[in-house]
Design goal:
- There is one protein chain.
- The protein is mainly alpha-helical.
- The chain has a domain at 2-262.
- The chain has helices spanning 2-36, 57-74, 80-102, 107-125, 131-136, 145-169, 176-198, 205-226, 235-252, 259-268, 270-285, 298-304, 309-330, 342-362, and strands at 39-40, 53-54, 333-334, 337-338.
- The strands form two sheets. A two-stranded antiparallel ribbon has the order 1-2. Strands 3-4 form a two-stranded antiparallel sheet.
- Helix 1 packs across helix 2 (57-74) and helix 2 runs antiparallel to helix 8 (205-226).
Length: 378
Amino acid sequence: MADFWNLLQQYETFAALAFVLAVFSTPLAMRVARSVGVMDYPDRFLKPHGRPTPYLGGTAICLGWTAALLLAGWRGLVGWERLLPILLGGVAISILGLIDDIRGVPPWLRLALGAVITLGVVTTTQAGLRLVQSVSEPLGIHLPPALATVLSAGVSLFIVLGACNSTNLIDGLDGLCTGVTAIISLCFFLLASHLALWGYSPGGDPLRLVLSIAMLGAALGFLPWNFNPARIFMGDAGSMLLGFNCGMLILLFAERSIFRWVVGALMIFALPVFDTALAMYRRWRAGRSIFEGDRSHFYDQLVQRGHSVRQTVLIAYGLTVFYGLTGLLLTWVRQGRPVIRTRYAVPLYLLICVVTFAVAWRLGLTHPEERRPADQTR
């Protein structure tokens, strides 16, 4: 435990910087949004909040996150050869989301540009390019290196873009996405700390620690302004950046091709993934496009069933903590010997997925819901 606190003291400055910049730049973002008319206007269905609310909160999150990463690079804690591509990619993703917030970007174009940005970061940093080997080699399957790299790049692209889409979809109630990703970032930091104390990767450990704690600080700095009743929304500029950071961390945990770490990271990020999967399943059952927006996410249905927005958000926080602790359990190592190895971690992960879907089915969360009453506020 003493080693962990010593490690935390080395990285707490980055969280503090991200927090301070986010918490104090958010009011400025609010004023700018109002002055230039970047507002989210209610429509009583997809946007059922009670009054016009400024966007641009994502710029404050991006500012805090960026400053923390720059400080880490300036101090020489993390090498620029891996840090800079992720930093530039995150800023580019956030700018893409900001343009979508202000003017709107066709979904296909946003997906294509996001893919180009992500692929550039993945190939430059080599993050996730051994994902396929981490699965195939323990099974005795040895693919040609070129083929394995191409397949890994495709899987990595899917993970990062999927994470961006998942955080975007879960940004549907005041403080929901912000708090959920703050908890996820904390769990990622705990996992990264464990690997660092274990000596997992002298070159990669600082990068994982900085990315997770910087996003934790930025999200916590924005949360007071975004919690119900929200005074500002993060918009796609914030939700896509949060997803990008989470997606890259999932890939970075696969650095040494130990699939158990990837499984643990995916479990930590499980709530946004499950919400996205359930939303697409419901739309498919209803005969609609899986990309069509609706208000039947699990959190919408909880509100429709009588829970307040704050109660629903706190329930989501609790579920995130549960999945986060489960993900950490999947990667728990004691005295140098893995308590839960990959051959046990993967079936346990699949079991939790099945149980989650079964519970959602039992509670009726897989059935498309009717529209909210017109007087229901965000």
